[in-house]
Amino acid sequence: MMKVLAMAFLALPLLIHTEQKPEAKAALSDYDLSDKKPQQFILPHKLGEASGLAMTDDGRLFCHDDERAVVYQIDYSNGVIVKQFSLGRFGVRGDFEDIAVAGKLFYLVESNGTIYEFPEAGNGQTVEFRMYKTPLTTQNDVEGLEYDPETHSLLLACKEFPGKGYEGNRAVYSFSLKTKQLSATPRFLISLKEIRAKEFRPSGIARHPKTGTFFIIAARGSTIIEISKEGKILDRQSINKNVNTHPEGITFAPDLTLILCNDGQGKRGTLTLYPRTKR
Length: 279
Prior knowledge:
By secondary structure, this protein is mainly β.
């Protein structure tokens, strides 16, 4: 049975330690996103609007469609669909923007900030789910979702309005999986002035498994940035627009290969792989 829970804001302040710890080493420079001929696979027609990526703890890649709550497992060595399952007995439609995995539970997020929680299902099966409404709206336009194991929370990256008083920034909010509530203030504020990009509208976010830093991609702006756990901008790169025409999903393979998926924008979606250039 579907359960709808309306959640209010709850401030989740970051812990401040008096002991100064060295900041994690940046990892973005380990990848060459200017590569003109990276390994790339054309996805099946079902994923023409591929919008998000997530990697399970056991190294399986999952993707989803934009307009329907259908989840696909993809073999990222060839781009072939391994299995698919859907939410709800009668199917769920919406504007689904990203997917995340936390242990045995999966999460989808809509652009209006609504979060769907559900377990994995077998091929061709449907699965029951819980839905959590957050104070975010289509005005914020949530496009990125990632699980942060250090805070046991989901990170929601907003493409548009960052919240009142945060103009001039892009915002990433935190949704606690313990309390099922959204933080009152952004976990990260990304200064557009500091990025120095003509346009930067986040379309995906992923946590680097080794450094614990976060990679944020922007399809509109063809840019990827890396930020620390404290939200400091560590590095940025341009994304080759001829290769990744509309990158909307990002994740990492167990061997730290960076994986992007592209919305086909009326054509076939693609999956692009960038192995680490530094060891």
